[in-house]
Amino acid sequence: MDAKRLENTLMAINQFGYSDKGMTRLAYSEIERQAVEHFAGLCRQAGMTVCIDASGNLIARREGRHPDWPAVAVGSHLDTVIQGGGYDGALGVVAALEVIYSMNDGQIETDHPVEIIAFACEESSRFGVSTVGSKAMAGILDKEKLSGLTDRDGRSMAEAFSDCGLDFESVEQSARGRGELKAFFELHIEQGPVLENEGLQIGLATGIAAPSRYEVHIQGHASHSGTTPMNGRHDAFLGAAELSLELEKAAKLEVAYGTVATVGVCEVKPGAMNVVPDAAELKLEIRGTSVESKNRVVDRLFAAIEEAKSTRGLQITFRQLSNEMPVHLDSEVIESLSRLCAQEGFSYRRMPSGAGHDAMNMALLCPTGLIFVPSKDGVSHHRDEFTSVEQLAAGAILLEQAILQWAGASSSQQEVYRTERVL
Question: Which segment of the chain is annotated as a signal peptide (predicted)?
Fold first, then answer.
């Protein structure tokens, strides 16, 4: 394991979409596909076979002694939010390649094939729906719902697929059977402050919170801001603001369950200072590990919508963009990762994941593990996102040992390999 090589590979990937305002590699964009192709080239140079499936997932494969046995898969995603950081997603993909590099350096053979997967469209920033590639691979993608989605430029997902040489109508072909993969592992930054605050090197996710996402359209009536009395207005923005505050109140009532709610987008039209807003659109999510708690927040939101329609004279419609179920990760995988942390002398804790990850969909296909490393100051989805190379190395070493164990490297090879690592 060469931590400097890992860091250099990560820096090379992050030349794609870099600016001083942050990293922007939106799903199915030209710059994101360039990053995917660059990574594909690195995998080929490492002796792996590479393909892009029907949903745009990159799959690179290193054969094992038994090519017909189920593969052990590892990976994450290369797309980012708008002006995001350089570690979210990309770390897991690059660390997976470093494991392959290290196995090649040590001439390590495994019984099972090992696959790296760089999932497409993990982030919701472009189309308002997340983990598209891993949903497609798990066979749970709702193509009909996705077909109506557009980005900020009005381009549909089918058009975005076409831009990348993909056929949206064939997306179901990405689905894989339950017997194809033995296990899946994802290394990711925590995106929160817990590990840093507690001085720990590793987090082992026990479960993953899931979001329910909605789009809310509020129709008022535009009028002159100087001549329309306050009690005669149908202000779409104030209706949007009221719903946002009511959503916050609803989520705070669920603090014991860890449920959170966020209004991430608010667009107001016509957008002039001297015009009472005619229309507003909200995009929001409610996220948690308790389905019952999430549903209570949704019920309070719907009640607030009915109240705003009545008291403010507004027309309000809403559309559910997604409703994902929380996932509890495999206990055998968690136990094996715990033993490996003890073996390597890493401090760790078990913890839920408040953020969604591709691992939540892969858990429907095979036993799945999600490993966290600290995020400085808990910052993520921002240009200041940072994890030190020493922290990256700890996560990569744990990932490496998990792959060797689950893919069936001999115990003697693993022991020699451990003593020869370059850190």
Answer: none
